[in-house]
Amino acid sequence: MKFSVFTASTPQWTPEEAVQHLADQGWDGIEWRITDQADAAEPGFWAGNKATVPLTGMEDQLERIAALTSGAGLEFSGIGGYARCDNHADVDRMLAATATLGAERVRVTTPALGTAAWGGEPASGTPYPELFDGARRDFEWIAQRAAHHGVKALVELHHRTITASASSALRLLDGLDPRHVGVIHDLGNLLIEGQEDYLPAFELLGDYLAHVHVKNAVWVNSGETDESGAAVYRNEWAPLRSGQGSVLQYFKALAAHGYDGWVTVEDFSTERPLAERTADNLDYLRSVAELAGLSVPAGRR
Fold this sequence. Notes:
With 301 residues, the protein is an alpha/beta fold. It is built from nine helices and eleven strands.
């Protein structure tokens, strides 16, 4: 098992700072966020993020990103893309860029439902069955293009999208070649929507389980009520140690399933400074992985 950080969660660091900090702390890899984003007065996770590579002109940045990553002794755990499955032109660009970088796998997003997802992408208002059927046709095409480029396109289990659960993602990809399409299982997202017991979900996905994201979340009483007078709860991101999801039980299920791939952290909690947060997360993940009986490389420290 190897550990990396998704740069959506490192907004205050430039790319140069991100690779240096993560390498110094002993991380194995990095997962670059690639998307066009809004400007912001202060760096944030979704706008003004300094560690984000713009999609516009991305191809001109690939050599620099590759040099920064390898120069720091880090590997690519994958690419955190935001090209939606029905945007074939940008999906193909992301697949080609992933091949050029040697990053092996890239996220392709699925349509949002209800409240906006993916950092603000609005829902279309199209009924779920129509969105799903369209996405299935898109992924049939994507699987062919991923095979052409020699990479794998990943569907993330993400709340308020058509693939919030392992079951829905399997239904989307079933029958497509798992060498070229797969699923990102995400501990934190599933606490918001789509939760299924860990081991059965891994077993259900089988060869489609291609990557793992770890973050944590909690549900809190907002202090508000709806029209009926009932309490309204909202979800908030939480540190790995204090969220509602058990990282230990999650890792034990991964061990039982035989998963030994990448685990990428995207910690959107803000209680601790960024450098302190990432360093502590690595220490915690290594200790939990060892408790779960997972193989953990020694790292650079």
